[in-house]
Amino acid sequence: MVIGLEIHCELGTKSKIFCSCPTEFGAEENAHVCERCMGMPGTLPVLNKKVVEYAVKAGLSLNCKIANYSKLDRKNYFYPDLPKAYQISQYDQPLCIGGYLDITKENGEEKRINLTRIHIEEDAGKLIHEDYQTLLDNNRCGVPLIEIVTEPEIRSAEEALLFAETVRNNLLTVGVSDCKMQEGSLRFDVNLSVMPEGSSEFGTRTEMKNLNSFRSLKRAIEYEYKRQVKAVEKGERIVQETRKWDDEKGKSFSMRSKEDAHDYRYFPDPDLVPIILTDEEIQKYKEEMPELPDAKKKRFIDEYKLSEYDAGFLASSIEVGNFFEEAIKDTKNIKSVANFLMGDISAYLNSNELEFSDIKFTPSNLAKLVNLVDKGDINLSTAKKVLSEMFESGKDAEEIVEEKGLKQMNDTGEIKAIVEKILNDNPQVVEDLKGGKKKAGGFVVGQVMRQTKGKANPGIVNQLINEILGL
């Protein structure tokens, strides 16, 4: 399998790349348009300076060389969703040159994926097909994009997925895009070919465009690889073409023959001056860069003694990493905070299809929950219930425990009476315990927890069982 990725990312500027129309998602159709982004005769584009800044920072996050001189070009072919019928992009002199990202695979193997370039361009509009007609929403015309192009060095769906996820995390960290795939802010094009093992001659590639989820990316790669292998083994010729991925059917379908660069008839845009950046300007952008996920992961391992997996998870998102570091200011139990973020909190967000930014409680509140468990005021089972209530109401952990009377029973005398009664009522369990059957202890603890509505301290229950039976 030989894969090259093209990742299209909408930049999070307030206005479009060549005009002052807003870029906000979800507006009424054709509300965010003007003469410039509609390509009316006599109008001139003006480059948004913020687009250049964001593209440079994206490039720096992916180890690119930033060009002191780059230019904008016209890319020509039939665009049903671009009113002026050409796209302003960059051809032979892009803003960001080269670059690379290191990924770590599941087996621990590290691999470097090199980039060819990152260039800026404008997005096209959106075609809506319904009731035997095609409607055109031009709101997205002129929204600024960067296109991240890799070398054909990816050799599996796993590598493609890891690379795409790492790119997304870096872009979110530097704050150049919201990367919301469901809104089209991040889209993947897959160029894929197959060749015999040991060969160095690439096969004919196909391109699958506009994959807008990691799941689609993985499934599309796996399907297209099998399709091509099957065709080659039958002696069929692979055609260079653009294919559409149908996520519902789990298949790709031929759309059109794939163009080469000369088919686009690129030429420098006569209405736009070159982009010239001094070394001082590039250095200023470098100094404004935040800590990137890979550096943060290494720091988390060194500073907080976290495992590589835990550090990688917490550092992968700027929101999660910041939440974690704020929370551990108010508790000594770093590992417990990490466990809640990776476990219950992550599971709740996924099952309810929520973003991390939707969390209503504060990092300090999570720290309070951890401290309540550590002090023995509540057990872990109760903590999970409290956390669920925190998600719903945003209330303080201590307040929820007080309001609902969830404080753990630590009164040895009260718990002892309950344990003794359960042991007296279950002589077989007593025999099993004395015979070394540890599962019987779980039965007793379960009965105590049921009678105390989950409030009894499990540690005290186990201690009392051993004391009463002289174990």
Outline the secondary-structure elements.
Layout: E1 2-10, H1 49-61, E2 65-66, E3 69-70, E4 73-76, E5 86-89, E6 96-97, E7 100-104, E8 110-122, E9 126-130, E10 133-137, E11 144-150, H2 157-174, E12 186-193, E13 206-211, H3 214-233, E14 241-246, E15 251-257, E16 267-268, E17 275-276, H4 279-287, H5 293-304, H6 308-315, H7 318-327, H8 334-351, H9 363-374, H10 380-393, H11 397-403, H12 412-425, H13 427-434, H14 439-451, H15 458-469
Describe, in plain words, how this protein is organized in 3D.
The chain has 15 helices and 17 strands. With 471 residues, it is of the alpha+beta class. It folds into three domains: 2-285, no CATH class; 291-403, no CATH class; 412-469, Arc Repressor Mutant, subunit A (Orthogonal Bundle), CATH 1.10.10.410. β7 (100-104) and β8 form a beta hairpin.
